[in-house]
UniProtKB/TrEMBL annotation:
Subunit and interaction comment: Homohexamer. Forms an RuvA(8)-RuvB(12)-Holliday junction (HJ) complex. HJ DNA is sandwiched between 2 RuvA tetramers; dsDNA enters through RuvA and exits via RuvB. An RuvB hexamer assembles on each DNA strand where it exits the tetramer. Each RuvB hexamer is contacted by two RuvA subunits (via domain III) on 2 adjacent RuvB subunits; this complex drives branch migration. In the full resolvosome a probable DNA-RuvA(4)-RuvB(12)-RuvC(2) complex forms which resolves the HJ.
Positions with biased composition (Polar residues): 1-14
Domain notes: Has 3 domains, the large (RuvB-L) and small ATPase (RuvB-S) domains and the C-terminal head (RuvB-H) domain. The head domain binds DNA, while the ATPase domains jointly bind ATP, ADP or are empty depending on the state of the subunit in the translocation cycle. During a single DNA translocation step the structure of each domain remains the same, but their relative positions change.
Protein family: Belongs to the RuvB family.
Summary of the function given for this chain in its UniProt record: The RuvA-RuvB-RuvC complex processes Holliday junction (HJ) DNA during genetic recombination and DNA repair, while the RuvA-RuvB complex plays an important role in the rescue of blocked DNA replication forks via replication fork reversal (RFR). RuvA specifically binds to HJ cruciform DNA, conferring on it an open structure. The RuvB hexamer acts as an ATP-dependent pump, pulling dsDNA into and through the RuvAB complex. RuvB forms 2 homohexamers on either side of HJ DNA bound by 1 or 2 RuvA tetramers; 4 subunits per hexamer contact DNA at a time.
Originating species: Nocardioides flavescens
Keyword flag Isomerase: no
Name of the protein in question: Holliday junction branch migration complex subunit RuvB
SUPFAM superfamilies referenced in this protein's UniProt entry, alphabetically: P-loop containing nucleoside triphosphate hydrolases (SSF52540), Winged helix' DNA-binding domain (SSF46785)
Amino acid sequence: MAEPSQRSQHSLTTADAEPDERAVEAALRPRSLDEVVGQQRVREQLALVLDAARLRERAPDHVLLSGPPGLGKTTLAMIIASELGSPLRLTSGPALTHAGDLAAILSGLNEGDVLFIDEIHRMSRAAEEMLYLAMEDFRVDVVIGKGPGATAIPLEIPPFTMVGATTRAGLLPGPLRDRFGFTGHLEFYEPHELDRIVHRSAGLLGVPVSGDGAAEIASRSRGTPRIANRLLRRVRDFAQVRADGVVSLEVAQAALELYEVDEIGLDRLDRGVLDVLCRRFGGGPVGLSTLAVAVGEERETVEEVAEPFLVRQGFLARTPRGRIATPAAWAHLGLRVPQGAPVAEVPLFEE
Ligand SMILES: Nc1ncnc2c1ncn2[C@@H]1O[C@H](COP(=O)(O)OP(=O)(O)OP(=O)(O)O)[C@@H](O)[C@H]1O
Ligand SMILES: [Mg+2]
């Protein structure tokens, strides 16, 4: 269990997976497109890409999946391979520091394999250039020797399908982005979709859950299946230890209050930031560093962990003069907007 002092890194509501969470997640992953909840558009688009490839008896176009953490990119990559009945070869951008790392993987591919590169925006330049050629011409140039005497030996690779996943599509160089025949953008989930995910996961975990208990967990999950599944597991603990094992509304509320996740999914740090911003600084504008010191956190933690969701919820605006609380933030804290509180210009723009 997380120490209180580690809470800011491993809060219950971060969208990134915790180190020991991968195995649990594997058990809850949908295995086919039909099992995937939500993401209607991407699901339909992908189904079409896969069906068309099956009709033509060819490997489908390369697929790029982009979107925030925990929304189902890895899940969809695995489903693409299983729908095609092909093996999935898995690697990640940070693992491909040298072109040789990628060459070794590419030259081991068989026809129709699906190559999944996670965090593709973190690949080295050299690997990236090799990938361009591989994706377009199914060829790699293996360089033998160094300096002026070096020679490039072209090596054919069998047609494969590349699936890339990224949380930062904007960081992908244009030429790489252009080599994907299809890009699926994953969106945050609606509460009713998360509700279905909670029911599904509860079923798989063998946890009895009531309708309003599931809805309560869904509404605190920040639009993110990973968080929904994580909250469900914590509420299950509470249900088993302190109640009769059933995840009811009362149990969900009591458990999530204990874990300091509020009705809309804000955690202690998120609320701390809003609280300091409104109560101590009159709603801002206040600089990031000052805000960080006031909540006793690192600048980066406030900026990267707390702020994105606060901005998404329309509670906080980042302006050139500093952070500003919106009327919704005051309302969430149960406070009246004071006279003279700063007003965020619309549209809100990022620094
Ligand atoms: N559409 C969905 N329906 C049901 N469960 C889902 C869905 N999408 C994601 N999940 C669940 O959420 C968890 C996280 O999903 P996944 O690992 O695919 O996210 P990701 O987008 O790859 O995240 P990251 O950016 O951190 O790699 C999985 O365990 C899966 O069970
Ligand atoms: Mg992933």
